[in-house]
Write a sequence for this structure.
């Protein structure tokens, strides 16, 4: 929080350069399939809330995607409540907190057709190396990230991804303190960097 509000029309650009791999993957899956299963909706929906997407914009965004594969009525009956619930507007009014890296890494692994989780932790080696290939990273960065994964230092791999894609962030006055501990910290630091 604290930053400028983000809008649904910003999310594609954010996913491309200002989301860690977990959230980038969820965004791309949602845009491709126009649906996400329960765990993915929670992980990504709470992240978007933490990034400053308002409840009204979140509702409009999820509806615009889901109604490409279902009726507005089916969305309203099956999913609109979910969105309001994430913002604490329904049910027990629990104020759901965006998930930390530890929670995501220690959480249930994604099954078939699911896209939640941490790619460093939950992807197999070939899937992960294909993903690293798509990212157009320099060889040294890719190798360092793969070595961190092998050592089960998933959060260090994620920090390295940030460093590799935000060169000179320290000189730009950007603090990467929470990067590797919380997906929203990764995104906040990245957005500060690209604005700087
Ligand atoms: Fe997401 Fe955290 Fe995994 Fe990075 S380390 S991909 S931010 S869960």
């Amino acid at each position: 929080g604290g930053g400028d509000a983000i809008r649904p029309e910003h999310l594609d650009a954010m996913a491309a350069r200002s989301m860690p791999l977990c959230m980038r993957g969820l965004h791309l899956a949602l845009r491709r399939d126009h649906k996400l299963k329960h765990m993915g909706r929670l992980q990504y929906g709470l992240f978007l809330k933490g990034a400053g997407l308002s409840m009204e914009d979140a509702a409009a965004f999820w509806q615009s995607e889901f109604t490409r594969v279902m009726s507005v009525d089916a969305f309203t009956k099956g999913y609109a409540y979910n969105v309001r619930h994430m913002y604490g507007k329904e049910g027990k009014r629990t104020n759901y907190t965006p998930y930390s890296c530890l929670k995501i890494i220690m959480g249930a692994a994604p099954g078939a057709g699911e896209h939640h989780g941490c790619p460093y932790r939950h992807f197999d080696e070939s899937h992960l190396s294909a993903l690293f290939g798509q990212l157009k990273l320099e060889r040294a960065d890719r190798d360092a990230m793969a070595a961190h994964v092998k050592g089960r230092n998933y959060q260090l791999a994620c920090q390295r991804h940030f460093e590799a894609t935000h060169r000179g962030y320290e000189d730009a006055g950007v603090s990467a303190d929470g990067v590797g501990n919380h997906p929203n910290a990764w995104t906040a630091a990245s957005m500060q960097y690209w604005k700087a």
Remarks:
- The chain has one domain: 8-195.
- The longest helix spans residues 21-33.
- The pocket of iron/sulfur cluster is lined by residues 20-22, 101, 104-105, 118-120, 154-155, 158, 180, 183, 186 (CB under 6 Å).
